[in-house]
Design a protein that fits this description.
The chain is 36% helix and 28% strand. By secondary structure, the protein is of the alpha/beta class. Strands 1-4-5-6-7-10-11-12 form an eight-stranded parallel beta barrel, surrounded by six helices. Strand 11 (198-201), helix 9 and strand 12 (221-224) form a beta-alpha-beta unit. Helix 1 (32-42) runs parallel beside helix 3. 48% of the residues are buried.
Length: 250
């Protein structure tokens, strides 16, 4: 059985790590370079860096910031935000990223996933999906949760897999920052219908939520931000807790 991964996420805006609730009301959470270094030392399995306003502002992710974070890590590093073409992927891999996360640009032009997978390999391409439940279906959103697309979560996740994405990073916008647990039902449906790893995002507030994401949600990895940034959960303690439930962690 593959070990489950614990992944801190740095949502970066104007060069600073921020954290919001339901994708709004951001507060400062610290320096991305320092936080990345800390998580690498504390036993995180991977790190995700998202330039959360790059797509909305129509600009590229800050490669120099990525370079500075990468220099302090010895764990796999995924970067997302403002990636629209292969040149962007190349620039970020050169800056020290191991994988790239594509979201808005991939929904607008799905062939981007095929291009990344065929040029760099599926393992480099993470398809990030921000979705909100409308009472009937999970609908995907663009530009950091600003624009509804009409595309449905499960259908788009399947297409991303077929086009060559190596992982799905699913964020429930309804659960984001609320700290009441992940969207386990939707996660389990993704896990049951896809053959690639699913990363759970949105809703971590306590150790039990990670446990439930792995057991009920069948997720392969769980991503969280504020509970790590503000010291509410320590990664080593979380891993010890999960081991008590026979959840394989590194």
């Amino acid at each position: 059985m593959l070990a489950k991964r614990i992944i801190p996420c740095l949502d970066v805006k104007d060069g600073t790590t921020v954290k919001g609730v339901n994708f709004v009301n951001f507060r400062n959470a610290g320096d991305p370079v320092e936080l990345g270094k800390r998580y690498s030392e504390e036993g995180a399995d991977e790190l995700v860096f998202l330039d959360i306003t790059a797509s909305h502002e129509g600009r590229k992710t800050f490669a120099d910031m990525v370079k500075r974070v990468a220099a302090n890590l010895d764990i796999p590093f995924t970067v997302g935000g403002g990636i629209n073409e292969l040149a962007d992927v190349e620039r970020l891999l050169d800056a020290g990223a191991d994988k790239v996360s594509v979201n808005s640009a991939a929904i607008r032009r799905p062939a981007l996933i095929d291009e990344i997978a065929s040029n760099f390999g599926s393992q480099v391409c993470v398809a990030a999906i921000d979705a909100k439940f409308d009472g009937q279906d999970w609908i995907c959103y663009l530009n950091g949760g600003r624009i509804p697309t009409g595309r449905k979560l499960f259908e788009w996740a399947r297409e991303a897999q077929e086009r060559g994405a190596g992982e799905i990073l699913f964020t429930s916008m309804d659960h984001d920052g609320v700290k009441e647990g992940y969207a386990n039902e939707a996660l389990a449906t993704l896990a049951d219908t896809l053959r690639i790893p699913i990363i759970a995002s949105g809703g971590a507030g306590k150790a039990e939520h990670f446990r439930d994401a792995f057991i009920k949600g069948k997720a392969d990895a769980a991503l969280a931000a504020s509970v790590f940034h503000f010291g509410e959960i320590k990664i080593s303690e979380l891993k010890n807790y999960l081991k008590r439930y026979n959840i394989a962690v590194r």
